[in-house]
Amino acid sequence: MPSPPFQMTLYLTFPVAMFWVANQAEWFEDYVIQRKRELWPPEKEDQRQELEEFKARIRKQREEKLLRAAQQRS
Length: 74
Known about the structure:
Elements: H1 4-22, H2 25-39, H3 45-73
């Protein structure tokens, strides 16, 4: 079993070292931002327009369904 001073040093050093590594601006810019761009590339305008059209179609279908249901109840 490790000695208590060694354990205490390890317990204090590890979080401080992780905090220091995580707050390195160069590392953040080089790794994290690049990784984010790989995982979620910027949207293209035609993709956004297609998505908006799809949402409008779904909204219209839902409204028509609710209208038919309301008319059948009356």
